[in-house]
Records
---
Amino acid sequence: MEGQNRAVAPTYLGWSIFNTLCCCLPLGIAAIVYSCRVQNANAVGDSTVATDASRTAKMLNIIALVCGIILLIIFIALKATQQ
């Protein structure tokens, strides 16, 4: 069927994996779950579910990244005060 272009929601799977390994494990795992939901919804053409899951995955990734940065700053501050 030509002419049918449906929007594909971004999965953020790579970002989710990075956050799981480097920033915040629980939020990263949740982001991976939602990223997989986006992939599945995109595959079957359910753009509403894909868009909602994509938005949730993005928000989880942002929160995980911020938590990782805050934890890194706290860790560096603690190390600097020990010397």
---
Amino acid sequence: MASQDVEMKESQPAAAPSAAVPSNSAVSTTPSVLQLLKEIGSLIETGAYTKEVRRIVRAVRLTIVLRRKLTAAAISAFLNQTLVAGSEAHSRLSSYLPKEDEHDMDVDTATSAIQVSTKHTFPELEIYCYLLVLIFLIDQKKYDEAKACSSLSIARLKNLNRRTIDVLASRLYFYYSYSYELTNSLAEIRRNLLSLHRMATLRHDELGQETLLNLLLRNYLHYNLYDQAEKLRSKAPRFEAHSNQQFCRYLFYLGKIRTIQLEYTDAKESLLQAARKAPVTARGFRIQCNKWAVIVRLLLGEIPERTVFMQKGMKKALEPYFELTNAVRIGDLELFRSVADKFSDTFNSDRTHNLIVRLRHNVIRTGLRNISIAYSRISLVDVAKKLRLDSPHPVADAESIVAKAIRDSAIDATIDHANGWMVSKETGDVYSTNDPQSAFDSRIAFCLNMHNEAVKALRFPPNSHKKEKESSEKRRERQQQEQELAKHIAEDDDDDF
């Protein structure tokens, strides 16, 4: 290695003057990204050596920030400095990166030969290299190569059982499933995801269990296998959530399952909680949560507030659901049909078209409620006309609709079958009923639930219960760790969605 370094250093000045310009430009552009990657690598190495998982979590967050600046030259130079030259991991990962210019490669190999101090690679660094190359391939839209790279990384990951790898493994699981989803082949990895979840359970990798459970639920829901998703969810072990990101996703998938199973009250709570817990930067995720929450609230007979549709950055995306809500609020069946036809492509892409079909009964019921309030007595023929029923026998259908609404206590009325009338009863004082008490109870339950969640989310510095006499050096070290912990907690809400 020493003779090679001397030869490389001596061969560089012999290059032509014209070739020196691009090499200097490469040196001036790549070192910033490469230097950051080296700092991330040293952070992972320190975390692996001291078994401090928070350092590896910090390294993953720095990688997300650096993601848009990654280049093939910087990643190739980092691989040369981190992995053993000629090793299986180095040769495989290097094959996925595009070949750079000869002068760039000379500069990279020269700097790597100078700066590498040891060739003993921690398994955490090797897994991080897999993750780095996989993210780069996905960003470059090389989905087939990303698919192959992710499969190799998972095969390597199965042979490693270290708790310091769990954070990196959870990210690899996500991009492994994401690469197959981008190539429309999610069904191929379902069996492998199940085996990985079993392996994570046996190794007590709780973060991996959370991630893999969400990936399996997403896999099942992608193919509309809601029964299988519910069976898996009910049988999977549950524990305290370790990642706010994964917990939000779990609540979203749970809300979708509950909606399909007609458990609208539980679905509404899960979807609203997922939207509330998600960070502000996860706009796309929050939009999907609000879309499903609007549909669920409409199926429950509630009308969402206008402020839901006027949230910053969501107005355009929620416009179809705003018009749908307006049609349901008015109770106009014809307007409901026109809105459903107008935005059918949007509803199909959101996979909410089947739920919107269920709303037809709610539109009819809302229109019937408005009619019962406006008229003390009205014929069933007029009821059918006002509801705009398009059935072959509108009067008979109107009679059955009114009878069902009366049985469900949706309206307070009676049917005069002899004369063909719907007779509404006089509206009494609402405060003489139990409606105000039930509304007050629901608000109190919501506030108590939020308080309990806030108490559970409290975080304390480690070993805060121990009161020991400490020296000035230990005090400074403890304060520095507390500052890093506070910074880590502050960035928790900005996690990548």
